[in-house]
Amino acid sequence: MILINLLPHREAARKRRREAFYTGLGISALAGGVLAGIIFLWYAAQISGQQDKNLVLQTEIKRLESQIKDIATLQAEIAGLRARQQAVEDLQADRNMPVHLMNELVKQLPDGVYVSSVKQENQVVSVHGVAQSNERVSELLRNLGNNSPWLTRPELVEITSGAVALSPRDTRRVANFILKVRLLRASEVQKAAASAASAPTAASSTPTAAASTRAKT
Q: Which of 67-81, 90-104, 200-214 has the least mean pLDDT?
C-alpha cells in the first residue's frame, strides 16, 4: 500500500525550526541576563569593598594628619625652648666677655700703641687708637689675629697720619687707626681649642700608619 502525505509538512518543519530558534533565543537571552546580573553584582561588591577601604584610609589619613600637627607643634615648642636655653647660656657666657676683651687688648698691644676708645656691639669690637708708626699697627693686627684665643678676624678700617705735640717745640708724627675685631664666646673658644688639640693627633697618626705600611712592604 502506498501512503501519500497530503499535509503541509514543509510548513510544519519550518514552524518547528522557528519555535526551536525562538526557544534557543529566549534561553540565550535569559542566560545572558543572569550572567550580566552576576557580573553586575560582582562589580557592585568590588566597588562597595573598595569604598569601605577608602573610608578606612581616609579615617587613618585624618588621624595621621592630626598626629603630624601635634608633632609639628611639639617640634616648634622644643625649638623655642632650645632657643631660650641657648639665649640664657649666651647671656651667662657673655658676662665675662668684657673682662676677656680688656685682658687680651692689654696682652696684645705692642709698645708704641695706645688705645683711646673701645666700643662693643654684640661680638664686634671697634678699637680706636694711636700708634707711633704704621708698622706698630700691623704688629697689633698680627697679634690679634694669631696670638689671642678670644679675638679673631681683625680688620683695619681706617688709618690716618697725625701729629702729637710732646712739648711746645717737639711734635711727633703718629698714625691714628680704627680697627674691628671679633670677640669669641666661651663656647667658640672651647670648640677652637678642641679642634686645635685634635689636629696634631690626626697629623701624628698619619706618619705612624705610613711607617707601618713601609715596614710591612
A: 200-214
Asked whether the beta carbons of 216 and 179 are under 8 A apart, the reply is no
How far apart, in whole angstroms, are the C-alpha atoms of residue 166 and residue 114?
15
| pLDDT at res. 217 | 44
Q: What distance in Å separates the CA atoms of residue 94 and residue 187, rounded to the nearest whole number?
A: 10
Q: What residue type is assigned to position 176 of the chain?
A: N
| pLDDT of residue 125 exceeding 50 | yes
Residue whose C-alpha is closest to residue 95's, from 211, 183, 6: 183
Q: Residue 148, SS3?
A: coil
The alpha helices in the chain, defined as continuous H runs, are 9-94, 97-108, 134-146, 186-216
Which among 178, 126, 177, 116 is positioned nearest to 151, based on CA atoms? 126
SS3 label, residue 96: coil
Backbone angles phi, psi at 166, to 5 degrees: -80, -30
In tens, the pLDDT along 177-199 reads 999 999 888 778 888 788 877 76
Judged against a pLDDT cut of 80, whether residue 211 lies above it is answered with no
Sign of the dihedral defined by the CA atoms of residues 125, 131, 137, 143, in that order: negative
Label residues 93-122 b or e (16+ Cβ within 10 Å = b).
Answer: eeeebeebbeebbeebbeebbebeeeeeee
Q: In what order do the strands lie in the sheet with 170-183?
A: 113-121, 124-131, 170-183, 151-167
Q: Alpha-carbon distance 45 to 54, whole Å?
A: 14
Q: Residue 123: phi, psi to the nearest 5? A: -110, 5
